[in-house]
Amino acid sequence: MRVIVHGGAGGIPEEPDTRQKVLDDAANAGAATSDPLDAVESALKVLESNDRFNAGYGGAIQSDGVVRTDAGIMRSDREAGAATSMAGIEHAISVARVVLEETPHVLIAGDHAVDLASDFGIETGVELRTEKTTARFTEENPPQGSPREHLQWLETRFGTGADQAGGSTATPHDKHAPDHDTVGAVAYDGTMFVAATSTGGRSFALAGRVGDVPQIGSGFYASPAGGASSTGAGEDIAKTTLTRRAVRHLERGMDAQTAADLAIEEFGELTGSSAGVIVLDDSGAGSAFNSDGMQTSVAQK
Ligand SMILES: NC(=O)C[C@H](N)C(=O)O
């Protein structure tokens, strides 16, 4: 089993070595399995439980004070599942897998996704806010009232992707904000590729906002040529279908590194925004980003 994981594209983390160790543990956990669905799920569960990443516990808080998680998973035979806008779900990746394996659908949202999770034995009602994320949110004098009032509040707080191009800041407000610390994994067992991504979204987003992560071809994609997982400003990733773009480059004969480089180059040209992508094909792994940093880890067993 070969696995590549990423811990989000953004600024340089405060303790890169500690964080790298968690990513290495995640990649190793994935590589120790014998099924690529298990590989990406076990890798991402390690990262969803660690508050150094914006997924599961420690995920970004939306304008109404709630963390809502999203994830997507896809196999190279084009079976896919995603789950979005879930409150109290730490392991969004496991819910996405339930959607893939147990339903005839590709995307389930909100309270219904939480009910589905509960029915399939996935823990619900988990406290996903940490002291750090709560303090950061509270400092910003959270809005009351209607969505229009929330929109006014986030006008000066929700960073545009262009604010972050070059990765200088995670948001205009907080240099060390864990804004781009979405997690992703791609696994290959010699037969099947599986790509997956999990996130708490972006900080200071409107309640109910959904980004690229649960959208096929945006946050995740797999085909017989390989798989890809992305991270960055989700609105821009969705508008340019970043992972579909990277996998299309594999289908045209590029290797994983060239496909990743070209996809990010095109993304930057089209959007002026920042993102990263990891790519796996049958001969190796590649990754590229146009932010200040994106940590990755590759493991093979
Ligand atoms: N942290 C991220 O990578 C954010 C994620 N792509 C989203 O927009 O929801």
TrEMBL record:
One function term, GO molecular function aspect: asparaginase activity
Site positions for Cleavage: D181, T182
GO CC, alphabetical: cytoplasm
Active-site residues (renumbered): T182
Pfam families in the cross-refs: Asparaginase_2
Catalyzed reactions: L-asparagine + H2O = L-aspartate + NH4(+)
EC number: 3.5.1.1
Ranges of compositional bias, category Basic and acidic residues: 172-182
Source superkingdom: Archaea
Binding-site list for substrate: R209, V210, G211, D212, T231, G232, A233, G234
Transmembrane segments: none
Region (Disordered) residue spans: 160-182
Top-tier EC class: hydrolase
InterPro entries documented for this protein: Ntn_hydrolases_N, Peptidase_T2
Protein name: Plant-type L-asparaginase
Source organism per UniProt: Natronocalculus amylovorans
Organism classification: Archaea, Methanobacteriati, Methanobacteriota, Stenosarchaea group, Halobacteria
